[in-house]
Design brief:
This protein has 183 residues and is an alpha+beta fold. It has a single domain (11-182), classed as 2-Layer Sandwich (Alpha-Beta Plaits). It has helices at residues 34-50, 79-90, 143-157, 175-182, and strands at 11-20, 54-60, 70-76, 99-109, 169-170. It has a five-stranded antiparallel beta sheet. The longest helix has 17 residues, at 34-50. Mean pLDDT is 73; it is low at 1-8 and 121-125. This is hydrogen peroxide-dependent heme synthase.
Length: 183
């Protein structure tokens, strides 16, 4: 009897991008435009999919924050791939007029999150009475170490009843850091 091994990526990166509608450049669609615009977006999703980036979801974020109407969840093997994929999506007719208000990038151990796994948390599902929260701080450059630490906590949390959560590791990027990079 031979064992079959599956090569999982060492890390899986995820990106959440939130957009809002523009009051000065509203999205105006004629009913005849819709099939072509939807097809264009589906074509872009196929192109980025061919490059290893998965669109995990499109979420209606209106009513949750004053600066949020749409959240896009991407997943891939490298942060740079996610950035590229988001730029490709933003060039589409449907997303071009939207204003990006915020986003987050995270990384987790690839063995914990196969692409076919359904997201554990949905906006329409009530949060558990006792969520597993593990605030942790490590050096900003040690995201892999933080991912391992949180993976251990997640595995321990699975033994508790009702705990089912995704764990993502990220780093807050201050606006001043963005300016420094652009200079």
């Amino acid at each position: 009897m031979s064992e079959t091994t599956v090569d999982l990526p060492q890390h899986v990166f995820t990106l959440f991008a939130v957009f809002r509608l523009s009051s000065s450049h509203p999205v105006v669609l004629d009913g005849r435009d819709v099939p072509g615009i939807v097809q264009e977006l589906e074509d872009v999703v196929d192109v980025i999919g061919d490059e290893g980036v998965t669109v995990r979801g499109w979420y209606d974020a209106s009513g949750l924050r004053s600066d949020a109407d749409l959240m896009v969840w991407l997943r891939g093997g490298a942060g740079e791939d996610l950035q590229w994929a988001l730029r490709e999506l933003r060039r589409s007719s449907l997303l071009k007029p939207l204003i990006r208000t915020w986003g987050a990038v995270g990384v987790l151990d690839g063995s914990e999150a196969p692409d076919e796994e359904e997201p554990a948390l949905w906006l329409a599902v009530r949060a558990p009475d006792a969520p597993l929260e593990t605030p942790s701080t490590l050096e900003a450059d040690d995201l892999s170490g933080l991912a391992r630490l949180l993976a251990d906590h997640r595995l321990e949390g699975r033994h508790a009843a009702g705990v089912d959560a995704e764990v993502y590791v990220g780093r807050l990027i201050e606006p001043v850091e963005i300016i420094e990079v652009l200079q």
